[in-house]
Amino acid sequence: GEDVEQSLFLSVREGDSSVINCTYTDSSSTYLYWYKQEPGAGLQLLTYIFSNMDMKQDQRLTVLLNKKDKHLSLRIADTQTGDSAIYFCAESINNNDMRFGAGTRLTVKP
Amino acid sequence: NAGVMQNPRHLVRRRGQEARLRCSPMKGHSHVYWYRQLPEEGLKFMVYLQKENIIDESGMPKERFSAEFPKEGPSILRIQQVVRGDSAAYFCASSQTENQPQHFGDGTRLSIL
Fold it and tell me: Is A83 helix (H, G, I), strand (E, B) or coil?
């Protein structure tokens, strides 16, 4: 397809793991990103992965990349209420052509 | 904090007026990008600039929209004769080089009355 696709909503309980999935469009994408957007704020770069990597871990965040299926996921361990936000997946071919998904709205229930 | 600075945070204009949105990139960054976000949607690329040059404007509407990044001062996104459909959040991002991650400002929320 032409669009970066994400599910729109995810709800988890505090302390559980969250997994946000994304399907991107271009097999030649060099970088894949996860951004977090809190209400009324801009996008905060959470993490990114080079296309020659399968996995990247950064504290509570784990990114998995399946190039064959063009599938990217973000796992947040021990999800907290402060993690409630919209999470955007983005792909970059030359870094001046970034395509974003519509965002996944994560709600964390106490 | 030397992050990407955008101003104003909120801008209200009447139909037919001009809107000017400003973006100062992070210190040391010479690559600037503008995006538009409609409600409940992701970001759509508009334009990519380096100092005094427009590198890629493939996402810019053909009319009424222009962008610049002068040698001195912030990058400006200019919308002439605004219409209701221009209401959106406009985000600026900057990067150090072409192959570095983009860092975003907090956006300008433009409302057209």
Answer: helix
Q: Give the integer Cα–Cα distance in Å for A96 and B6.
A: 20
Alpha carbon distance A4, A97 (integer Å): 13
pLDDT digits (tens, 9 = 90+) for B40-82: 778 899 999 998 899 999 899 999 999 999 999 999 999 999 9
DSSP-derived 3-state class of residue B38: coil
Mean pLDDT of chain B: 92
Chain A nearest-CA distance from B32, in A, is 9
Q: Taking CB atoms and an 8 Å cutoff, what residues of chain A touch B29?
A: none
In this predicted structure, the answer to whether residue B99 has a pLDDT above a threshold of 80 is: no
Closest-CA residue of chain A to B49: A96
CA B48 to chain centre: 9
How close A7 comes to chain B (CA, Å)?
12
Asked whether the predicted pLDDT for residue B29 surpasses 70, the reply is yes
Report the residue from A35, A45, A102 with minimal CB separation from B41: A102
To the nearest whole Å, the CA of A17 is away from the closest chain B CA by 24
Rounded Cα distance between A21 and B13, Å, is 38
